[in-house]
Amino acid sequence: MTRKILIMTAVEAEKEAVLRGLSGEPGFEVAIAGVGPAAAAASTAAALARADGRYDLVVSAGIAGGFADVAPIGSIVVASESIAADLGAETPEGFASVDKLGFGTNRLPADAEIASRLAEALRRAGMPAHCGPVLTLSTVTGSAATAEALAARYPGAAAEAMEGFGVAEAARLFGLPFLEVRAISNAVGPRDRDAWKIGDALAALEAANTYLAEVLPS
Questions:
Q1: Residue 18 confidence (pLDDT)
Q2: CA-CA distances (angstroms) from residue 68 to 71, 72, 92, 184, 186?
Q3: What local confidence, expressed as pLDDT, does residue 87 receive?
Q4: Bridge-based pairing state of the strands 88-91 and 129-136
Q5: Are 165 and 37 in contact (CB under 8 A)?
Q6: Per residue in 77-131, pLDDT tens?
Q7: Mind spelling out the 3-state secondary structure of 109-142?
Q8: Containing H/E element for 108?
Q9: Using CA atoms, how far apart are residues 170 and 20, in angstroms rounded to an integer?
């Protein structure tokens, strides 16, 4: 039986990059999730419900900001887990994540075997690739202070984006494995649009998706 993979991107430009990388590989469907975790969760859940269980894997793919000491601009991050980094509450002692409050979890793991195989395949192909946590935020970082606070709160965090945890939550509800792949367009920190390399990141996203089919279980 042919495997079926659903790939969700936030916007059309990311979808087109993913499709170019897949080059018509059978078994893949690429759809737009919208921007932010709520839209991503709703869109992904709707797609999975319409599919009536025919998917084997759900992927969140797109560009992202990278924590400079872990994932420089132009590199690829394959998530080890997706973390809803701003889901929680402010307390007198600082931020308390939703898991510490006892209201569920703000961390959802990616499929460890596929994530590791993809990162290794990219490195063998000469692409800078890292496997590590990817943060999901409703408001992306725009200051050095916030970047430092996130890095301290989530040691080893490699990148931040806006959709991964939402896609992961929908996959979890349907009992499906999850993967998140991010190409780094800018450094997490002060917002400087002139320094962003969106074209380069989309090219890296396209290249990364040329290796996705070969690392999936048959």
A1: 97
A2: 5, 5, 30, 10, 9
A3: 83
A4: unpaired
A5: yes
A6: 999 999 999 988 888 888 877 888 878 889 999 999 999 999 999 999 999 999 9
A7: ECCHHHHHHHHHHHHHCCCCEEEEEEEECCCCCC
A8: strand 107-109
A9: 25
